[in-house]
Specification:
716 residues, alpha/beta, Rossmann fold, Quinone Oxidoreductase, Chain A, domain 1, 4 domains, 7-stranded mixed sheet, 20 helices, 29% helix
Length: 716
């Protein structure tokens, strides 16, 4: 609906809105008269937009009431109004017209500066006028320019307030204004409030000012309280017991409490002011209603008139809804009453979902002819494994960095770190940190050639997909006879074992070693390496089936295998070593069990921790065992990847050399091979904690169908 005071403007309007004119109606409307007498239906509009027109009437309050009459309850009035009265342009041009001076009364300003201001109102004056016509006040304000000299027009948003005839605007009992008599600010605001109330314009009730020193002797039952006690400083943060009892009685006995403070949340200029927020919530809980209301005023000591206006607006709103659920915390800024609370915004949620929703899926069948797509694994919501999905790799058309190679993935190892990242328990850049494949791209001068069979490690992840890029220092050729799924099971676990036992612990023949989680991937690699080095091996397991696996696969006896579900292994180790302890510990336990293990270290022993839980939690380590000349080391291959790439190259070469010199060395067993489409199932298997051996995802299983988002082909 498009309206104007004269039909003469409609033709121009139809030309301007010709693209939507067929959906519009044009009708004359003169706001000097009741719209219902001009063919408009009462309460029939959700939104009314008024562009610089409402001010130019003889009776502004009546005009606003006519506008409200057209709105449904809660409907919005959006006005574009000139609010900078220092702008000479409007008064100079329009002041020459008789219609500019129609209004006879403007009670909303008692400032001499605006005695002859004409029909225009400031934002603060609109905030006072709108509630008198049944609107909420200023819900939102948007300026055309923040700097005052350049500011001219403001967009003002207000709501048509619900009318509840059964509830009077204010109680008939006197309003008690509570102050500290030694505060000039509180005295000034209290007298200002009392004056406005006495004028009968805002309220038709009596008010009295009560000094806090005498407040304990007064009966507050069925009273409405306006507390100014925290207007210029916090009272509650340093209140004594007797004064607190007085405050508590006032708040619990009265009908309604409006508690004012200054510079509290959300601006939080004075953090102590927020004590009142917690106090108010406690009072509401004890009262069983929301009739203790906090109002935080901006710079209350400098803007007494605006503060009085904001106070009465909030009080009016609260008094009209005492028997219904209403807001109990407000904040005033620039004359606008705000609710400092996050609320759902459905349309914004829809926009975000549209822009960030899971991509449209297409099907990729492993082994199909044609160019291979570039994708890898990601997760939509960490913590929910059913939101894992494969997505396009947008950066795989870019040139390789120095010393980088691109590998067409054939198989990828699944580590517990992948599961922890997927569950949101530790931060991570991606999934898939080691595997095997074929070189698909190199830079000039590379030591690798396209087609080379390799194993790789990468701290950046990205191995669960079709292509991965990593440094040459993290890549090694594998024998032609080594299957890709076997090769994928080797890098992370064997690099950890070799670095921990050979480089850090320097395990020697005749020494003893305790390996926690012996049936896992790293555990089995460490067992084989320790036996090659001639060490006495002790291990822990979580259940009987894992014990049997180690006995059958590595020939360990019951006297070498202990349980790690409780701390009994510590006593077993001391008994097995005649109380001396072990020379080397490869630890993956956390908390109390780590400390029990730490106490099992022998003189001159080396404790190597490959777990991350206590490190991330920054837990405390007992210092007593250090008296035995022992060392405590932490191993994280990610740090080696990122800060010591030549060392990573050496470790990987040591691993391959180990397999060459000792043909009986093998991958962790059993090898659990999953298809890429069963990645969620693979993670849940590892999450269960009952796994043994190693889990590998094989990307060469023909006919396996994958759902991939935004499928683009790679130009590799």
């Amino acid at each position: 609906m498009y309206t104007d005071i004269s039909p003469g403007f409609f033709e121009k309007a139809k030309e301007r809105f010709n693209n939507v004119a067929s959906h519009m109606r044009f009708q004359k409307l003169d706001l000097e008269f009741d719209p219902c007498s001009q063919g408009f239906a009462e309460a029939s509009y959700d939104v009314i937009v008024a562009g610089n027109v409402l001010h130019a009437t003889t009776d502004l309050i009546q005009t606003l009431q006519y506008v409200k009459k057209l709105l449904r309850p809660g409907g919005k009035l959006i006005m574009g109004e000139t609010t900078n009265l220092d702008n000479v342009r409007d008064g100079l041009v329009f002041g020459l017209l008789p219609g500019w001076w129609l209004r006879e009364e403007q009670w909303w300003s008692n400032n001499e500066e605006y005695q002859d201001q004409g029909p225009l109102l400031t934002e603060e004056q609109w905030a006072r006028v709108l509630p008198e016509a049944g609107f909420s006040g200023l819900d939102m304000v948007f300026r055309d320019h923040e700097q005052q000299p350049h500011h001219r027009v403001s967009i003002l948003v207000s709501s048509a307030a619900d009318e509840h005839v059964e509830n009077p605007l204010f109680p008939q009992e006197p309003i008690k204004i509570l102050i500290n008599p030694r505060s000039g600010t509180q005295n000034a605001l209290a007298k200002g409030l009392q004056k406005i109330i006495a004028n009968g314009i805002e309220l038709a009730v009596f008010s009295e000012i009560i000094e806090f020193d005498t407040a304990s002797d007064i009966d507050y039952r069925d009273s409405t309280i306006i507390s100014l006690l925290e207007l210029d400083s916090s009272l509650l943060s340093k209140i004594g017991e007797s004064n607190f009892e007085t405050v508590k009685r006032i708040c619990l006995d009265s009908r309604l409490v409006l508690w004012l403070n200054s510079d509290a949340s959300p601006g939080a200029g004075d953090p102590e002011a927020d004590v009142a927020i917690g106090f108010g919530r406690t009072i509401c809980s004890e009262r069983g209603d929301q009739n203790f209301i906090n109002l935080s005023l901006e710079c209350s000591t400098q803007r007494l008139h605006q503060c009085a206006d904001a106070t009465l607006r909030v009080l009016r709103n609260a008094s009209s809804s005492l028997d219904r659920v209403h807001e109990s915390e407000y904040s005033e800024k620039d004359g606008v009453i705000q609710i400092p609370r996050v609320v759902p915004m459905a349309y914004l949620n829809d926009i975000i979902v549209t822009r960030s929703r899971r991509p449209d899926e297409q099907t990729y069948v492993v082994g199909d002819d044609g160019p291979k797509p570039c994708f890898n694994l990601t997760i939509e919501t960490p913590g929910l494994l059913d939101t894992l999905y494969y997505a396009e790799q947008a950066n795989y058309h870019e040139e390789l960095k120095e010393n980088e190679v691109e590998i067409e993935v054939q198989a990828t190892s699944l580590n517990f770190k992948d599961v922890m990242i997927a569950l949101g328990q530790i931060p991570g850049k991606g999934f898939g940190f080691d595997g095997s494949g074929v070189i698909s791209r190199t830079r000039p001068g590379s030591k690798f050639s396209v087609g080379d069979r390799v194993m790789y490690c990468t701290s950046a992840g990205g191995g669960f997909g079709t292509f991965v890029q990593c440094s040459e220092f993290q890549t090694e050729k594998i024998p032609a006879t080594m299957p890709f799924d076997v090769a994928a099971a080797i890098p992370a676990v064997y690099c950890t074992a070799v670095y921990s036992l050979d480089h850090i612990a320097r395990l020697k023949q005749g020494e003893s070693i305790l390996i926690h989680a012996g049936a896992g991937g790293v555990g089995q690699a460490a067992i084989q390496l320790a036996k090659i080095r001639g060490a006495k091996v002790f291990v822990t397991v979580g259940n009987e089936s894992k014990r049997q696996l180690l006995k059958e696969t590595y020939g360990l006896t019951d006297s070498q295998i202990f349980y790690s579900r409780n701390n009994t292994f510590a006593e077993d180790i001391r008994n097995a070593t005649d109380g001396r302890g072990v020379d080397v510990v490869l630890n993956s336990l956390a908390g109390e069990l780590l400390q029990e293990t730490w106490d099992c270290i022998a003189p001159f022993g080396r404790f190597v921790d490959i777990g991350k839980a206590d490190i991330i939690a920054n837990n405390v380590l007992p210092m007593g065992p250090f008296d035995r000349n022992v060392t405590f080391s932490a191993v994280d291959l990610v740090v080696v990847h990122e800060q010591a790439k030549p060392l990573m190259k050496t470790i990987m070469q040591d691993v391959l050399r180990l397999f060459e010199k000792h043909p009986h060395v093998h991958e962790p067993k059993p090898l659990h091979v999953f298809a890429p489409s069963r990645i969620e199932e693979a993670m849940r298997y590892l999450q269960g904690g009952k796994n043994t051996g190693k889990v590998v995802v094989d990307f060469t299983l023909s006919s396996d169908e994958l759902k991939v988002g935004n499928l683009n082909t790679c130009l590799a």
